[in-house]
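User: Teach me something about this protein's shape.
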Amino acid sequence: MIQKLLEPISVGPMKLSNRVVMTAMHLNYCPQGEMTDRMVNFYRARARGGASLVIVGGAEIDAEASGVDLFLSIKDDKYIPGLKRLVDAVHEEGGKIAVQLYMAGAYSFASMKGLPIFAPSEYESYFTRQKTTAMTLADILRVQDDFVQAARRAKAAGFDAVEVLASAGYLICQFLSPKTNKRDDEYGGPLENRMRFGLEVIRKVREEAGSDMAVIVRVAGNDFVQDSHTNKEARVFARACQDAGADCINVTGGWHESRVPQITMDLPQAGYVYLARGIKENVSVPVIGCNRINDPLIAEDVLAEGIADLVGVARGLLADPEFVNKARQQKFDEIRRCVACNQRCFDYVFQLRPVGCMVNPKAGREGETELKPATKAKKIFVAGAGPAGCEFACAATERGHKVVLFDRVDYLGGQVHWSAVRTRKPEYLNMFTYYRAMLDKLKVDVRLNTELTPAFVAREKPDLVVVATGAAPFKPPIPEVDLPYVLQAWDVLKDDLKTGTNVVVVGGGSVGLETAVFLASKGTISPEQLYFLTLHQAERPEALRELITKGVKNVTVLEMLGRVGQDLGPSTRWVLMKDLHTRGIQIITGATMKSISEGKVTYTDSQGNEQTLPADTVVLAMGARSENFLAKELETTGVEVKVIGDAAKVGKIGDAVEEGFNLALEV
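Assistant: First, the predicted structure itself:
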């Protein structure tokens, strides 16, 4: 039952219709900082979808703020008309809008433009690997005024609120932390002094904002950086922010350089709301709880239990702009859930590409993806109920085509169905909760346990056959591939095949690495066992850590290239690499497999020397090949055929979803 989530709330002078806040995301939609139709259409859709407040940004407040030309900008009056256009669009849809005032400090790439990288002290940034310039008192006053002038522009553009960014390791965080603030003046030393810069910014912004605009402060509830702040110090700072004039505290976790996952699926849903709870206990203004909240029922629990007053939903609204409206209508299965893959959001940010979404092909394309009725309704057969096939079937049906979806197995999902849980991506299954609901709602004719054949196509004569039959594992042309102790990674994951004590995984791509983790986890204790043993203090902390990381198998990964995980994105690769290291999985790069025999694998190392490894089982993870034989067989039927997804070219899930949707737009 959704109730608290939909209750109104006041944040300073701002009255919100519900408790869902879309927190700021870097989208790379604004070349040279200018407002674009893409940005306007994106946020208009989220406001129309029911989010009570959208926070846009970060918006760079001065020339040194980011050093990257794709950030939204609020550093000059010339940007006000474009910002006003965005504000008006959100207001037209009944929403409220805030702008996040962004100054990265040591996280800036300003040196690329010949500008100093400002920070409280001189040091090499762990995140950018660039040397910082210690701010003088004149620099401090100038940057504080840049915040004030940005707030003035926000007010002129009609924003309902401004958010001062004091989290994620950016400039205010750098002043707060003893790790990065080594000053010996009034802005350094004890916590009271280290807070001074940020609090002065907040007071000055509060004064400029006046009584008609709310001031929000985004804080790190715990830096998750050694020798930096925990929730204890964050509580003190949050209370001081309130006293300085903040109307709301928006709580996240960690810095960008933290070695604790912040946004990947390794973090449980709502995994950091305990940080918001700690701050809520020390302030009286509303508190926003954030990180990995993509389920309205979980959000409802957070609010109903008083852990936070509002919930921050960023990627959840990227994945489905109608998140709030669907929750209000109790259409939970029809929500496209964020699966925390990061493939087209955070990874695209780091690659300086416009942000999209793996599960939502319309994200960032709202102005060009309207599903208009087809000129002529066609009879279309789709072979394969994986991501590409399901997306096409839904979108094409919405346009008025008569679609029949076939799959030879008894489930939707293709590879996702059997790989998600064993590669620790269980939320990927939410994609097919959505597709199942939509296929049913749209009354698509779904025929599982039914293989589409050329004979059937020839007899029924559809206007189009869409082949979305996916891929199959690549089998190297060696006789050893059929030995009983040589297995395919796909089969190991799909059927949980038994393996020996010494396992060699050949192939260091994502599939090989995830299979290695799956095998190395055999024999470790379960989360339930860990909870029990921890609660009752049955084992020492160091013993518990070993029990959750050390299994019963010795796993080695052989990779021919010089680096493993090359098909992984930058925001997730480091997490998997950390897991491989923690579990004691040996990784050998520059290794070319030479032969497999019972009990051992022989390979040539990077120096050209022959080496052997003990191997009770060899698991092959050497890539995949398109499974498109049906398309070839249909060439003689005279029926038009389109091939999408892995059947056309082996890629990622987001590629398959996008191809399915794009084809549906064209048909």
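Now, about its shape. The chain has a mean pLDDT of 96. The CA atoms of residues 250 and 605 lie 51 Å apart. If you'd like, I can walk through any region in more detail.
User: That's plenty for now, thanks!
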